[in-house]
Specification:
about 240 residues, alpha+beta, Helix Hairpins, Heat Shock Protein 90, five-stranded mixed beta sheet, two-stranded antiparallel sheet, globular
Length: about 240
């Protein structure tokens, strides 16, 4: 191809790429606005349903009518699940709502904040963790989801979660390992999908925590993956650029 034609073709490719990128940015903005508006508009009727259920239980509830009490509990539980889903969707859609400016972050502080929010602090153990290039708020949310999931799905009273890190060239790889039942290889990628749950509703949750965590880490230039085998627990690992002092 003559140089002039090659230059024209390259310019056309650049323009097409810019158009696609601009379209993706607008779609992402529309999704964020849609998610926020839906969440805002649905919270009020959900609060109304919850309030009137409580009023019915207080004013007209018969302590001896076990069936009515059970029905009201089903309604309140459904409202709680719907509200939790709205919070999760807004959290997910907010990841790219503003431009991030990654800075050095102390992962020990991230762990402490996440463990405090997750509760069960006696179950969490960590090595000294290095600093990474990231965002404290996003990483605290990611660590919180990983710790909380480890406790919820361990299925044992003596749950133990070990958090450690190692250096890999220019990156830091943080691992969160639990002593739970592990995850079958066929299901390992599935857990990162939207609203994907390997268990029924007997274990609370929205099925959005790992999807959020993966997208949050990717927005910071990192990645999240899983290593597990049945009976050997699960290890969630994520990588981020190291903050060299």
């Amino acid at each position: 191809m003559p140089p002039q034609e090659l230059e024209i073709a390259l310019e056309q490719e650049r323009r097409l790429r810019f158009e696609v990128e601009d379209r993706l940015r607008r779609l992402n903005t529309d999704f964020q606005e849609f998610s926020s508006r839906i969440a805002h508009d649905l919270r009020e009727p959900l609060r109304t349903v919850s309030s009137y259920c409580q009023l019915l239980a207080t004013r007209f509830g018969d302590p001896e009518d076990a069936e009515a009490a059970l029905f009201l509990k089903y309604i309140r539980d459904a409202v709680d699940r719907a509200q939790a889903l709205l919070v999760a969707v807004v959290e997910y859609s907010s990841i790219e709502s503003e431009r991030r400016h990654p800075v050095p972050v102390d992962m020990n502080a991230v762990f402490s904040e996440a463990a405090r929010r997750a509760g069960h602090e006696g179950a969490f153990h960590r090595e000294n963790l290095p600093r990474v290039i990231g965002d404290f708020g996003l990483l605290s949310n990611v660590m919180h989801h990983l710790l909380e999931n480890a406790v919820k799905f361990a299925g044992r009273s003596d749950v133990s979660v070990e958090v450690s890190a190692r250096r890999d060239d220019q990156d830091v790889i943080v691992s969160v390992h639990d002593n739970g039942p592990g995850i079958e290889p066929a299901h390992q990628e599935r857990v990162f999908g939207f609203f994907r749950r390997l268990h029924g509703r007997e274990i609370p949750g929205t099925g959005m925590g790992l999807a959020y965590s993966r997208k949050a880490l990717e927005s910071l230039g990192g990645k999240l993956w899983l290593e597990s085998a049945p009976g050997e627990g699960a290890t969630f690992l994520f990588s981020l650029p190291a903050a060299d002092d």
